[in-house]
Amino acid sequence: MNPELSSQGSSIKRIGNPAGKLLGEVIVFTGALNLTRNEAANLAADLGCSVDQNVTKKTTILVVGSQDSHKLAGNEKSSKHRKAEQLIASGQNIKIIYEHDFQELVSTL
Span 80-96, mean pLDDT? Predict the structure, then answer.
């Protein structure tokens, strides 16, 4: 796996651009992306999203990249994806989108 596709070793946390159209959204990325994590985080922050490394009750958007089955420990989804689904089931408003949806969103705003 390309080391640039991983966020390990560096923080991707960002504070959203106060003039961004998605101000107030908190976004988390999981899986391998075509963009580097830093590129994806910068795009999201430019749009106004705060970027976090982990899914929490504050998360509003989870962007899912391709999943490496060797890293999923027998699961079909990443731990971030499963955590988001648990929070949704308990009433949290989290949108789960895929990388192509994120790139489309970026291109339209």
Answer: 98
